[in-house]
TrEMBL record:
Belongs to the short-chain dehydrogenases/reductases (SDR) family. Gene3D superfamilies: NAD(P)-binding Rossmann-like Domain. It comes from Deinococcus navajonensis. It comes from the Bacteria. InterPro entries: KR_dom, NAD(P)-bd_dom_sf, Sc_DH/Rdtase_CS, SDR_fam. Residues 27-201 form the Ketoreductase domain. This is SDR family oxidoreductase.
Length: 273
């Protein structure tokens, strides 16, 4: 019997009661860096289960393409151009979303930046750019959404997109990425600390730590060291377009109501060896 053959009949009364746990109808999900890559994949997953998705990213034309793509799938999608590293714009953008779309139920902190350089040669400007997007901007956006939407209503789901780079050091065969690893390590503990603070307030905070997925951000890394990555990955493959979707849906939904402060690797087994 195949795995597919062994699946339960989801139409039976004994299993259909699970469906409401994953239903996101009527909820609004804000996804940063949502115009492409992992952010767009997450938007597809949450939208498929009923969420209204709000995407932010720096480039308006990419947002417009993502919005058309999602609407073609029957997903309600809104887009707002903005740079997470532009701290002064974060508050006004959230204010617009709340006024034009509604209260934010789910926040996916996905936008990120990276830089590759030996530590002794790493430009300070590049270090600050990575920290400002991956940590400082994420903090300010999260703080604003908590204050303006989640805390007053006593409910919310925060999902941080960290990385296996925040759970371990860097393979010496790969380009040095100290700023990226440091920022993602900070996001891992940001998740734990915020989860503990919000645990009695109806708000859960978890992170997904992806391994290597083919995206625009990882294009240079894969061009440089894909073979080494595959050799170090027990599953011997990169992440696919669907590998994050199930976990993102779980963490955004009522099915994860008793989960908080968790940093979950989706990496083909990289962190298991």
């Amino acid at each position: 019997m195949s795995f597919q053959d062994a699946q339960p009949d989801v139409s039976s009364p004994s299993t259909s009661r699970l469906r409401p746990l994953f239903d996101l109808s009527g909820r609004i999900a804000l996804i940063t860096g949502g115009s492409r890559g992992l952010g767009l994949q997450i938007a597809e997953a949450l939208g498929e289960y009923g969420a209204t998705v709000v995407l932010t990213a720096r480039k308006q034309h990419e947002l417009d393409e993502a919005q058309a793509h999602l609407r073609a799938q029957g997903i309600t999608a809104h887009v707002y151009a903005g740079d997470l590293g532009d701290f002064a714009a974060i508050g006004p953008t959230v204010t617009r979303i709340l006024a034009e779309v509604g209260p934010i139920d789910i926040l996916v902190n996905n936008a990120g930046a990276t830089w590759g350089a030996p530590t002794a040669e790493h430009p300070l400007e590049a270090w600050l750019k990575v920290m400002n997007v991956n940590l400082n901007g994420t903090f300010l956006l999260t703080q604003t959404v908590l204050r303006e939407s989640m805390l007053p209503r006593g409910q919310g789901r925060i999902i941080n997109i960290a990385s296996v780079a925040g759970l371990q050091g860097n393979d010496p065969r790969m380009a040095a990425t100290l700023a990226y690893n440091t920022s993602k390590g900070g996001l891992v503990n940001f998740t734990r600390a915020l989860a503990a603070e919000m645990a009695d307030k109806g708000i859960t905070v978890n992170s997904i730590c992806p391994g290597y997925f083919p995206t625009k951000m990882t294009k240079g890394t894969l061009a440089y060291g894909e073979q080494a990555i595959l050799e170090h990955t027990p599953m011997r493959r990169l992440g696919s377009d669907t590998d994050l979707k199930g976990l993102a849906l779980l963490l955004a939904s009522d099915a994860s109501a008793y989960m908080t402060g968790q940093n979950i690797a989706v990496d083909g087994g990289i962190t298991s060896v």
